[in-house]
TrEMBL record, chains A, B:
<dbReference type="InterPro" id="IPR050109">
    <property type="entry name" value="HTH-type_TetR-like_transc_reg"/>
</dbReference>
<dbReference type="Pfam" id="PF17932">
    <property type="entry name" value="TetR_C_24"/>
</dbReference>
<keyword id="KW-0238">DNA-binding</keyword>
<protein>
    <submittedName>
        <fullName>TetR/AcrR family transcriptional regulator</fullName>
    </submittedName>
</protein>
<dbReference type="InterPro" id="IPR009057">
    <property type="entry name" value="Homeodomain-like_sf"/>
</dbReference>
<dbReference type="Pfam" id="PF00440">
    <property type="entry name" value="TetR_N"/>
</dbReference>
<dbReference type="InterPro" id="IPR036271">
    <property type="entry name" value="Tet_transcr_reg_TetR-rel_C_sf"/>
</dbReference>
<feature type="DNA-binding region" description="H-T-H motif">
    <location>
        <begin position="37"/>
        <end position="56"/>
    </location>
</feature>
<dbReference type="InterPro" id="IPR001647">
    <property type="entry name" value="HTH_TetR"/>
</dbReference>
<feature type="domain" description="HTH tetR-type">
    <location>
        <begin position="14"/>
        <end position="74"/>
    </location>
</feature>
<dbReference type="InterPro" id="IPR041490">
    <property type="entry name" value="KstR2_TetR_C"/>
</dbReference>
Amino acid sequence: MAAETVQEAWADLPPTAQKLLTAALAAFGEQGYHGTTTRQVALRAGMSPAALYMHFPSKEALLYEIARTGHEVNYERVRRVCEERVGPVERVRAVVEAMVSFHAEHHTLARIVQYEHTSLTSDHQRELIGVRRRTEAFLREAIDEGVETGVFDAADASMATTAIMSLAIDVARWYPSQRSRRPARITSAYTDLALRMLASRA
Amino acid sequence: MAAETVQEAWADLPPTAQKLLTAALAAFGEQGYHGTTTRQVALRAGMSPAALYMHFPSKEALLYEIARTGHEVNYERVRRVCEERVGPVERVRAVVEAMVSFHAEHHTLARIVQYEHTSLTSDHQRELIGVRRRTEAFLREAIDEGVETGVFDAADASMATTAIMSLAIDVARWYPSQRSRRPARITSAYTDLALRMLASRA
């Protein structure tokens, strides 16, 4: 059973590793990746710097584990809903719902990952760009199928894909200061707006 | 004459202050705000830390000057095009064009400002949120006018405003890795998508 949240994905790790990742996520969120030392992460988790290095050989390894889990949990949520739904309209709806809810729930993680991406090694960057492309591909395939079958009318399918991904990704930026907007309202408005962008005739 | 770019806005400052702001922008972009010291900014600008403090009393003062100028230049661009265009369709188009081009041109600044907003003093945060609201108000007014006159059909005008702002703001995230997309293509696609979101009948 694939994890629904990042915390669930970490549940099988040793408790000390979970504590370190939780501490790193909070510290990076508050002070930025470059502004945080591994010593600070260790102390925040109530451990010695030496104990940290038993689990994570470097600060980058912490960022990578956070970013990798975030990418994979988001990918899995999108994949699962796309499998459950039939037809391009329902699949576009599903991707928007999955992406919006992920970026509202995991806004701290998502912002760190978006901003600190270039602090990862180039191998790690490439790997995660791959996961991102596979996630985006679910949306692009739904759009292309809709265009082929005449359900959608997209003037520029590539830009429309980016735009719909942007709507969902940018939720991580504004959601923390707009919590009076319930996730259900955001999801309902954004699925409607995404289908309007595609001139859905459904 | 209001400045068209952040660099133009800084052109009246003493050359040493301009150098320090340019150095701070580059350093914050590479190492994050928390990962950068005022000493590093001074050295990058070819000055002593003491010379920096003659112009900026703190690291926050550098971030504030960068963020304030960014907000004001973007606001001025939006205000100007809105004054030139007539009617809600043309004004929505104008806001999207101005916002997209600002966020493509000033992507490093925009990302720093988006991410490091909470590092500003609360007075500075409040001031800049005010500029942001006034910028967004041009879009909201155009949407409301379009809905009242029956040119637009927005199910949730507040969410549609956020969504259109998001499209433009998120350009700063993806544009650096998608430079093969010319700004003219992005602007043309995004004005079309914004008007589709509003079910424009123009």
